Amino acid sequence: MTTSAQPQTHTPQPDTDVSMPASADAAATRPQSDEELTDLGEALRRATGGRYGPVRDLARATVPASTMVRDPELTMPEAREWTTDALRRLIELGMAGSGFPVAQGGLDDVGRSCVDFEMTAHGDLSLTVKSGVHFGLYGGAVTALGTQWHHETFLPPILSMEQVGCYAMTEFGHGSDVASLETTHTYDAATDEIVVHSPTPSSTKTYIGAAAHDAHVAAVYGQLVVDGESHGVHVVVVPIRDEDGRPAPGVTLGDNGAKGGLAGVDNGTITFDQVRVPRSHLLNRYGGIDDEGRYVSDIDSDGKRFFTMLGTLVRGRICVAAGAATASRKALSIATRYALRRRQFSAPGHDGEVLLLDYLAHQRKLIPGIATAYAHMFAVNELTDRLQELHEMPTKDQEAQRELETRAAGLKAVTTRFSNDTIQMCREACGGAGYLAENGLTTLRGDADVFATFEGDNTVLLQLVAKGLLSGYKEMWGDLDMRGMVQFAARAFGGQFVEATAARPLVERLRSAAARKGEDDTLLDRGWHLAMFADRERHVLETLATRLRRRADDRDSFEAFNSAQDHVLLAARTHMDRFVLEAFVTGVEACEDEQVREVLERLCTLYALSSIDADAGWFQAHNRMSAGRAKAVIAQINTLCAELRPQALELVEGLGIPEPWLNSQMLRDETAARWTPGAPV
Amino acid sequence: MTTSAQPQTHTPQPDTDVSMPASADAAATRPQSDEELTDLGEALRRATGGRYGPVRDLARATVPASTMVRDPELTMPEAREWTTDALRRLIELGMAGSGFPVAQGGLDDVGRSCVDFEMTAHGDLSLTVKSGVHFGLYGGAVTALGTQWHHETFLPPILSMEQVGCYAMTEFGHGSDVASLETTHTYDAATDEIVVHSPTPSSTKTYIGAAAHDAHVAAVYGQLVVDGESHGVHVVVVPIRDEDGRPAPGVTLGDNGAKGGLAGVDNGTITFDQVRVPRSHLLNRYGGIDDEGRYVSDIDSDGKRFFTMLGTLVRGRICVAAGAATASRKALSIATRYALRRRQFSAPGHDGEVLLLDYLAHQRKLIPGIATAYAHMFAVNELTDRLQELHEMPTKDQEAQRELETRAAGLKAVTTRFSNDTIQMCREACGGAGYLAENGLTTLRGDADVFATFEGDNTVLLQLVAKGLLSGYKEMWGDLDMRGMVQFAARAFGGQFVEATAARPLVERLRSAAARKGEDDTLLDRGWHLAMFADRERHVLETLATRLRRRADDRDSFEAFNSAQDHVLLAARTHMDRFVLEAFVTGVEACEDEQVREVLERLCTLYALSSIDADAGWFQAHNRMSAGRAKAVIAQINTLCAELRPQALELVEGLGIPEPWLNSQMLRDETAARWTPGAPV
């Protein structure tokens, strides 16, 4: 069933540089792995790798699992120390700074920086988050919001880890509502400095990764005040600790202490008491202060500037989506591998006891989950590629950028919801063994949990998606704007739905073909699935627009928005479901290996039917599905689970996490006898 | 809105002894509490207290919160020490041993022992589980499976904590399948001893609470072998540690280490190498060895004896249901109280920022959850009362016992599923603050998690429920028996459904009244809700029976069972949904205060409609609900949330957890300024 380890047969794609920037030795080595994979498992990895597949292969082949997984028994101080050490190792391994400018030692490849982030998530999410804060959020803010001087000054010590950076956005009083942050950056013309200050208890920065112990420098969000006038939120680089770890003058640092997970991340609080930094520390790409002490910006409107600056969060959200998707894949890999060796209850007329995965109920837990995990891989790949494509464009396409921001926000919400549900399901599917930290699931669950609320709370993000849809990506966004949402809807709405899908000729062709058939023929028909998803989205969005439009003249636009909030969230979710399905369908189309494609098609059908079944109430209530068909969908899901069951091992191999990276004691050969009733001592 | 603290106005009900057995001082004090409650909140507590309400009031009034809550920052060794100390304090507080015989210092009140367990869950679940293992499982096994000598010998040192007990049932190789445990209890006639032995690696006991550090003595499940003949699983009391904590000769003890929660519980492994104990250590109420060395039992069949012995697990399952229900109530209390002080985003035309609980989406998360939490309170009360009623009956009613076992198994599965989903939802509803351990939700989540798989894995338990239903409680059960389930279905099935509901005249009357009305009138009609729940259950169960009956002659009864496993689980769930709704309706009926009753009726409607909405796909596919009605249900849920919103504080007060027991830093007054943007320093 398995092939012996061989140098991988697929060569890096020519358009992708898989060399590791900071490690010439690693780059010189072709990807090789000790992992024993089935042919199908390896082919599934290849089919799901996308543009950055070779980067993933290289990491799997060259990074020792031992450097990427953490002993779950470490205390919080030990876990923090391990994580900081591991962060340094990422640099040696070349998994850091890919998104930085070439001049500062990076690759100027923001897509690859997402993949680097994702690969750390194959190992340990504390490391993922810590590197995300340091390289992605702090380094990313300097890169995206700063200018050349900032790059030259602040990025090299980040890439060398001489300095640890943190990202001081959230305050006790405001998290989702970034525009209302209370921290002030007041320009003092007399000394040509910016005074950073926390004016209220609620303006203390909190949950800031690396603030409790490691960080030397912070990208601090606050209201920029120049000559008494506020210009909205801007970012200033502020030293918060000296090299010996002592707080900088005027800076008070606190420790958020134990959390629901991420024991290796030292989240903390930062309070500023009139802390002075030179004017040059203002990241002034979109708005700054000139030598005469006047505020200057190429963007006239404060709102538009704010949304442009927040638009730089897009990478972080794709990263979080990729990290959460990886966490789901890890959990599914652990639970499925366990279900392939764990037996319980004798079956009348069968030899021995029954493997967990041979129970229909167990299949129904794990196999649709695996199908969704595949769907998310293709969706993450699509956004990662798109991010880099737009980055490479010489002129910015604003609508394309908005669309990407919308989908990144939505995919982050969808994958993190799925990961929290799925890791818990996998934990329970492993019984008592799943509850032991040594088996990998509980740490993963605790670590991934916060992904649902950081980098944008999921509920808020889904509202942003709806706002993007209602405005046809023509409006700036990045914040929850209740009045704006109602107003968008009041304008002529329509057109953009078709426009957004027209970009996929394959999807259009399949859907049209299905429309010509009757219901009886089409249960497995991809066109029918695509039509169902698109039709659901269209109907939800159009009725939402109508509903909001009817209330557009209400004096109370909060009430108008709020009364439809469940509808708003449904619109966003159905849009993302369609996006994910179309990404899956497009990804499968690109697969040339017939056997692999057949498996992927089956997974895609299972994903589509599971989603239709989960919304069976909606589809029937809106006359999109008959009672008979609703029952047939469930029967078909059971059939698909049975058909995919024999390939379960290959399917989880295809999810891309090598077994040693799963960090699960119960999957190791030396403990196998425990799970084999009657095996001799 | 709140009344000042006064001695509570409701006196203990005369039929319940609220005195604390081991603390005369506490018993002499009338319940008094420092808690400031609204009138409605207090009245809701009274209405949901049931027979043991006064016991709960006394604990809330007399037990200091500080003795019941644990610092979430404690390391695992510190948490274990805290828990062991707290266990001792339970004895001083009289919250221990209520279920023990009066002669051994107990109250012979098994219902009250469940409530004692539940009250510890108001504070800390490690303490709950540790006390559950020591008093409930170990003490309960000795009480229920032992005879007078065992009670006199083994119970006093448990109640004095001179000995700590543990419950050694689960092995690496077998958890759910208790009948297949591999540990052997072999009678050696030559020395009149029983030899306890672990013959295989998979027979090592694992996940055993208190085994890693504290336990001196274990109730060990194993196959009893007398004169070469096996008589199935029996329990033997085995010393495993001496008073200095050294393992007994032949006993090897291991530590399960860090877990997903319950840091205070020292779960571990036990391996026996030919450990000898006197014959008297066999708990022989249902089967033993006489002085001539012959196996003797009043119960002829090994299977029936096994099921009778496992029937003693019923209390543990009610306890776990109560504990999980309490954990849900804690989480909902924390998240709702936070949502009543946390604001985010300005609303156009409104002063200040919007309270989280004023968002429809937030209401839709929390308020239906609160409604379900109320439903579960009434259901837990009903089973607790029933447990004690049956315990007090001079002759045992076997069918009633089976029914109780069925419902206990089912309610455990339903409440633990709900608690895992709900605690996570509440964590996310509190954003970053919810992720900090100091705010109480993440520890609760990790601790409650395992309730879904211990004391019976939920999937297995739901199958037991289906088995009970198919056999009309006329067959013994306690184990998953696939052949049996198919065979029950093959016999004449019917009758018991009506029989089981006929016991509730109120329910019958309401349902009949609804049947005479049209769909238009009945959206808020309790009779319609009851009819929908009953009809769903009846249809699912009848079609399941038909389906299994059709396969009854299959040679492969595993395949026959397995192909319908999703249907089996649905039958169990729909049965439990009906039971919970009927318990809720019956509980509301008993409430005499009109204002309180109105609130409870609204919660009951919200619970019923939420369940109907969650199954909207099924109801429509089976022609039980029109498309229009499916949409109307959602609109009505939104309306009910809006109607209940102004009473949110009162509703969570009614959930019964005093604020200091929530152990949530963010709810304390001294941190309030953090959550109030713009408040002065």
Derived structural class of chain A: alpha+beta
What's the total helix number of chain A? Answer: 25
Number of distinct beta strands of chain A: 13
CATH topology of the largest domain in chain A: Butyryl-CoA Dehydrogenase, subunit A, domain 3
Distance between the termini of chain A: 28 Å
The major sheet of chain A is characterized as: 6 strands, mixed
CATH class of the largest domain in chain A: Mainly Alpha
CATH homologous superfamily of the largest domain in chain A?
Butyryl-CoA Dehydrogenase, subunit A, domain 3
Shape of chain A: globular
Radius of gyration of chain A, rounded?
25 Å
Number of domains of chain A: 2
What is the helix fraction of residues of chain A, given as a range?
Answer: 40-55%
Strand content of chain A: 5-15%
Name the chain pair whose interface involves the most residues. A-B, 100 and 100 residues
Low-confidence stretches of chain A: 1-30
Average of the residue pLDDT scores of chain A: 90
- CATH architecture descriptor name of the largest domain in chain A: Up-down Bundle
How would you name the oligomeric state of the polypeptide chains in this document?
Answer: homodimer
Organism (chains A, B): Serinicoccus chungangensis
Family (chains A, B): Belongs to the acyl-CoA oxidase family.
Subcellular location (chains A, B): Peroxisome
GO molecular function, one term (chains A, B): fatty acid binding
What does the model show?
Two copies of one chain form a homodimer. Chain A is α+β, with helices and mostly antiparallel strands and 681 residues long. Chain A has two domains: 165-301, Butyryl-CoA Dehydrogenase, subunit A, domain 2 (Beta Barrel); 314-660, Butyryl-CoA Dehydrogenase, subunit A, domain 3 (Up-down Bundle). Chain A is built from 25 helices and 13 strands. Chain A has helices at 24-28, 39-49, 53-62, 65-68, 76-92, 110-123, 125-145, 148-159, 302-311, 314-339, 360-392, 398-429, 431-435, 441-449, 458-470, 482-490, 496-502, 505-515, 526-550, 557-562, 565-589, 594-614, 616-621, 627-644, 648-654; strands at residues 165-168, 184-188, 193-197, 205-208, 217-226, 229-239, 251-255, 268-272, 275-278, 288-289, 295-296, 343-346, 353-355. In chain A, the strands form four sheets. In chain A, strands 1, 2, 3, 5, 6 and 9 form a six-stranded mixed sheet that branches. Chain A is globular, with a radius of gyration of 25 Å. Mean pLDDT of chain A is 90; it is low at 1-30. At the A-B interface, strand 12, helix 11, helix 12, helix 13 and helix 14 of A face strand 12, helix 11, helix 12, helix 13 and helix 14 of B.
